[in-house]
Amino acid sequence: MNFKDNIRVIPDFPQPGIRFKDITTLLQNGAIYKEAIDQLKEMVKEKEIDVIAGPEARGFVVGAPLAYSLGVGFVPIRKSGKLPGETIEADYALEYGKDKLAMHKDGIKPGQKVLIADDLLATGGTIQTSIDLIKQLGGEIVGAAFLIELSYLDGRSKLGGIDVVSLVQY
């Protein structure tokens, strides 16, 4: 299936020069959304995964259904101040700004095998920060899965050699 046909590209969002890959058009079509999750599942099903972690917010719409389909748990990685329990936090850079991510201190147990899932791999800042948070809690990263990879930004090279899979590359 050509998933690119179902991803809208919006020029100059959120700032001039960015060509935003909008997955809401893919998510709106139940059959295509299901096929995307099913294909990601096929790409990672041989990995030993205890839990999937997904960064806010689009990582939730990829990671949670992927976790459900694999029969494993899901751990949200949120922006600072959004989680109610005791958290750890880390700063990170986006391709067009800076932010801070947080996880519950009890979200990952030492030794758990974690797959990170998100909609997009761009510069790698969000995912590298997610990796750092998971490792602080003693988790073992077994890979990362994305709907989209902006290969021209080479974010993959910043992830310390973890196995990366993506459905669509730009």
Global structural class:
alpha/beta
Helical residues, percent: 25-40%
Mean pLDDT: 95
Number of domains: 1
Give the low-confidence spans: none
CATH architecture descriptor: 3-Layer(aba) Sandwich
The CATH topology comes to: Rossmann fold
Q: Strand count, sense and closure of the main sheet? A: 7 strands, mixed
Main sheet strand line-up: 5-6-4-3-7-8-9
Tell me the fraction of residues in β-strands, as a range: 35-45%
> What oligomeric assembly is this protein in?
single chain
The number of distinct β-strands equals 9
* Radius of gyration using CA atoms only: 15 Å
Order of helices and strands: EEHHEHEEEEHEE
Please give a handful of descriptors for the protein shown:
single chain; 170 residues; alpha/beta; Rossmann fold; two-stranded antiparallel sheet; 9 strands
Tell me what the structure shows.
The chain is α/β, with parallel strands linked by helices and 170 residues long. The chain has a single domain, classed as 3-Layer(aba) Sandwich (Rossmann fold), CATH 3.40.50. The protein is 26% helix and 36% strand. The chain is built from four helices and nine strands. It has helices at 24-27, 30-44, 58-70, 125-136; strands at residues 8-11, 19-22, 51-55, 73-79, 87-94, 97-104, 113-121, 140-149, 164-169. The strands form two sheets. It has a seven-stranded mixed β-sheet with strand order 5-6-4-3-7-8-9, with helices on both faces. A two-stranded antiparallel ribbon has the order 1-2. β3 (51-55), α3 and β4 (73-79) form a beta-alpha-beta unit. α2 packs across α3. The protein is globular and about 40 Å long. The two termini are 16 Å apart. 34% of the residues are buried. The mean pLDDT is 95.
